[in-house]
């Protein structure tokens, strides 16, 4: 009998990757949750044989109904869409509330065997209070909530996913053309030697992690899986992008204050994250007292390189 895997945010980057990893495998039946079941992305999921269900992360009852009968649930929240109309403190509260609803619905789902929570490291604790990254903090609070429900914690895989290649498209992380110099610049408030852990194209590179997480649950439940494809310095990452486009690109140091003046709350959301990585390096993806599993621990193969991720990517 096939196992029902329910995917929150099925039309988003992570959700599409989870579905792509499992679709066509008769061991699994797929249910995708979305706010808009009439969208073209939802229709595409139906064509792939995915059951599409409408659900609202702010509505616990709708999530409980949507999770019914699931063997596993993939939980994720994507707060960046909230930034346009809300301040960071509000976004953090909304994302935490969404995550708590997902976790609570999972805890109340009879027969659920596996819950995967997409989260991030505890930047505030790791940095000794220097970095309060709202999208990290909200997910961390949900993790605390999950760990407070013994029956749910024991069946949860906590999933760290590294940097998406498409983040080079967003404001304070973007790469800007300088036509008069026939070159591009990356305005960076972090050092060029900052180590960046990349997942690259998450729709491609998250896929190879999904079956190992589900099928090696004796390893992953209760632990953290860190999904990344490679680690490159910020400078080397920029040059990999430049080479893929056949252009020149330069890392231009600027102050955190200037970045904040230019991009406001988006600077806190994105540029602050890269400064955190620059200051704390390898430690920034740590989890003191917890087991972290990587691609090597799970035998993950088939990842594409950062260069390959950039090949068809346009800023």
In short:
This protein is an alpha/beta fold and 315 residues long. Helix content is 42%, strand content 20%.
**Structural class estimated from helices and strands:** alpha/beta
Chain oligomer state: single chain
Record the strand order, biggest sheet: 3-2-1-4-5-6-11-14
SSE run: EHEHEHEHEHHHEEEEEHHHEEHEHHEHH
Provide the low-confidence segments as ranges. none
Keywords: NADP
Organism: Xylaria hypoxylon
Domain NmrA-like: 1-283
InterPro entries: NAD(P)-bd_dom_sf, NmrA-like, NmrA-like_oxidored
Question: Would you kindly provide a written description of the structure presented here, covering whatever features stand out?
Answer:
Belongs to the NmrA-type oxidoreductase family. Keywords: NADP. This is NmrA-like domain-containing protein. InterPro entries: NAD(P)-bd_dom_sf (IPR036291), NmrA-like (IPR008030), NmrA-like_oxidored (IPR051164). By secondary structure, the chain is an alpha/beta fold. It is built from 15 helices and 14 strands. A hairpin with a 4-residue loop joins strand 8 and strand 9. The protein has one domain: NAD(P)-binding Rossmann-like Domain (Rossmann fold). It has an 8-stranded parallel sheet, with helices on both faces. The model has no long low-confidence stretch (mean pLDDT 97).
